[in-house]
User: Which sequence fits this backbone?
């Protein structure tokens, strides 16, 4: 069943990195992968980050990319594939182009880190952070976001895009259907900010690849629906 909503875009701006995407534990693991993890115990966060960035720069672009990708994808991507991706990164935009969108957020953060470490060279990642206010026709309609937040939200946002937008061309079956696992690779961060009556406010982070058009949209009406769980789950 399709639920109807009015969507107002409260704020929208472009970003080139996700705040707090890299933690001290991440930097320590990167240093360990480079064999430079001795004597780091007394460093504060800023010192550790600076040391990590300098160490990546000393490796050179491709080797540094291997270290970063190895940290991010070691459990999911083979060493040979990581080598290939590291060699391709400087000339590509993997946070948009990689075939599996569930990897896009991590590629985005990899580019942000490597671009800073090498003062450019790697493409500047293009992301968007925006907040929306959703108003439902009746209160029960809002439960679709409780049942499957990412899937229902991506379907709703797709309703504000042009019918020939890339989102529709790539994910038409998922938008119309009842199973949309790729939605979590499209909306990287998604947070409920406020809820009152028939309205909810959400804040989210994604790629400009999907939602750049919202920079010029203030309001739209659209429908959405939740995923349906498999009967054998």
Assistant:
């Amino acid at each position: 069943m399709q639920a109807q909503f009015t969507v107002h875009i409260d704020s929208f701006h472009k970003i080139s990195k996700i705040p707090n995407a890299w933690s001290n534990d991440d930097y320590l693991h990167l240093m360990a992968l480079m064999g430079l993890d001795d004597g780091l115990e007394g460093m504060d966060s800023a010192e550790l980050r600076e040391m990590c960035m300098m160490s990546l720069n000393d490796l050179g672009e491709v080797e540094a990319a291997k270290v970063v990708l190895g940290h991010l994808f070691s459990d999911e991507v083979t060493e040979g594939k990581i080598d290939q991706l590291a060699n391709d990164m400087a000339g590509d935009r993997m946070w948009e182009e990689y075939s599996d969108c569930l990897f896009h957020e991590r590629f985005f953060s990899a580019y942000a880190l490597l671009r800073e470490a090498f003062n450019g060279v790697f493409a500047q990642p293009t992301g968007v952070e925006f907040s929306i206010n959703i108003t439902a026709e009746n209160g029960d309609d809002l439960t679709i976001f409780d049942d499957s937040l990412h899937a229902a939200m991506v379907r709703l946002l797709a309703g504000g895009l042009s019918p020939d937008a890339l989102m529709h061309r790539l994910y038409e079956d998922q938008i119309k259907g009842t199973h949309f696992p790729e939605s979590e690779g499209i909306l990287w961060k998604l947070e409920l900010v406020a809820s009152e009556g028939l309205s909810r406010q959400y804040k989210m982070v994604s790629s400009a690849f999907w939602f750049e058009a919202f920079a010029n949209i203030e309001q739209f009406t659209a429908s959405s629906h939740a995923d349906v769980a498999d009967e054998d789950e």
